[in-house]
# Entry
Amino acid sequence: MSFWRVLLAIIFPPLAVIDRGCGSFLIVLILTCAGWVPGVIAALVILNKN
# Structure
């Protein structure tokens, strides 16, 4: 994970995972709409996976 990717995941989580596929993007977008913290956590988890 790069510093910019982590920063983007904290500011706007769906943009950080947009290159990981449509499913990941939609999950993070829905979680971000439900609450900012779950979206950030999901984005960081998805970015941390290899």
The chain has a mean pLDDT of 94. The chain has four helices and no strands. The chain has one domain: 3-48.
